[in-house]
Design brief:
It is built from three helices and two strands. With 90 residues, it is mostly helical. The chain has one domain.
């Protein structure tokens, strides 16, 4: 099925997505640690990939968790933008 698909020179789609999740998750964490709003966008990309892998693997509890994480990313983006507006107005 998905594991039999060859994506990049011998790499399955599943392996590619796991690498993507690793890189985007770390990038998001580093950016947020440096108070950079773009980190949440990286986390959203990570969450979408992890959600996809979870659904393909029939791990619906994990999939629900990644949906929650994605909602929290949207909330955090909205909240940080509001805080930035307050800083500009002051």
């Amino acid at each position: 099925m998905v594991d039999s698909l060859i994506f990049i020179k011998g790499m399955s789609l599943d392996q590619f997505l796991q690498g993507f999740i690793l890189v985007t998750g770390i990038a998001g964490q580093v950016l947020v640690a440096h108070r950079n709003l773009k980190g949440f966008y990286w986390w959203l990309a990570c969450n979408v990939a992890a959600l996809t892998v979870s659904v393909w693997s029939h791990l619906y509890g994990m999939a629900a968790l990644y949906v929650f994480y994605s909602v929290m990313c949207f909330y955090s983006i909205w909240k940080w933008q509001k805080l930035d507006e307050i800083k500009v107005d002051v």
